[in-house]
Amino acid sequence: MPKPRTCEMCGARKLKRRSTTYPLILPGQQINVGRVQVDECAECGHLMPTPAGQDKLQRCLHVFSGMLDIPRKS
User: Fold this and answer.
1) What angle do CA 57, 29, 15 make, to 5 degrees?
2) Which H or E element spans position 62?
3) Cα dihedral angle (41, 47, 53, 57), rounded to 10 degrees?
4) Which domains, and CATH codes, for the chain?
5) Of these four, 27, 28, 38, 48, which has the most CB atoms within 10 Å of its CB?
């Protein structure tokens, strides 16, 4: 999948694809998920998960919500 052309936050065009720890925000908690593929803005540092990164976050959310007994949207 091609990289996005601009940052969602600031509109800068210089993005770098890398793997990093990404914060997964849950009700009242934050869980840091390791090795998530993201596009990082060189201007503001905003992280945008790639499609593969989004898939990993969804899998982790599914597992964590079951462990923490957080209601899931179907």
Assistant:
1) 45
2) helix 51-68
3) 180
4) 15-68 (3.10.20.860)
5) 38
